[in-house]
């Protein structure tokens, strides 16, 4: 049976832990509120951009646009982006679950492949048959170690080229 002193120390310890978690909760609530406010402030810009893109696409002739053509879906490339570390709640797990659903259910009959950007998704898929990487993308596969527009452009240009060359249909 614990002594009275041990019980008092335990009560003090629990009180300190409650105080720390309460402070952490307040900090995370403030960060969440700031992020929500930023999203709300960006909404008018997103709506206007959507309107502009809608107007542009209505005036363009899409008959000779390789990205707008409709074709049978035989090969699917899923670009999955996760963080390199944790500390982001359920973000990584939600991405992994969604990719798993896409691979095993939605595109199971369409030869799905997964391009993994981020350590967590790469660790999950690198030993599976759906893991996709090529020599051109190998230097920028770990995009978050040197996050830049140039690295993102390398990936985007490679993916667009492969889509136009009909390596992937979706």
From TrEMBL:
Where in or outside the cell it occurs: the entry states:
Plastid, Chloroplast thylakoid membrane
Single annotated GO MF: proton-transporting ATP synthase activity, rotational mechanism
Q: Which GO terms describe its cellular component?
A: proton-transporting ATP synthase complex
Alphabetically sorted, this entry's keywords are: ATP synthesis, CF(1), Hydrogen ion transport, Ion transport, Membrane, Transport
Similarity field: Belongs to the ATPase gamma chain family.
Q: What does this protein do?
A: Produces ATP from ADP in the presence of a proton gradient across the membrane. The gamma chain is believed to be important in regulating ATPase activity and the flow of protons through the CF(0) complex.
The protein's name: ATP synthase F1, gamma subunit
Q: Which organism is it from?
A: Ancylostoma ceylanicum
């Amino acid at each position: 049976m614990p002594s009275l002193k041990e019980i008092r120390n335990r009560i003090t310890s629990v009180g300190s832990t409650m105080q720390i978690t309460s402070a952490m909760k307040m900090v995370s609530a403030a960060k969440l509120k700031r992020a929500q406010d930023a999203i709300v402030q960006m909404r008018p810009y997103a709506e206007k951009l959507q309107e502009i893109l809608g107007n542009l696409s209505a005036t363009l002739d899409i008959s000779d646009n390789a990205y707008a053509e409709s074709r049978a879906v035989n090969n699917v490339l899923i670009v999955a982006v996760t963080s390199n570390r944790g500390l982001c709640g359920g973000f990584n797990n939600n991405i992994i679950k969604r990719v798993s659903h896409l691979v095993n259910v939605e595109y199971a009959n369409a030869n799905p492949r997964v391009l993994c950007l981020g350590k967590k998704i790469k660790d999950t898929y690198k030993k599976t048959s759906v893991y996709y990487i090529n020599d051109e993308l190998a230097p920028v596969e770990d995009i978050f170690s040197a996050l830049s527009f140039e690295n993102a452009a390398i990936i985007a240009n490679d993916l667009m080229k492969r889509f136009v060359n009909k390596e992937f249909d979706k």
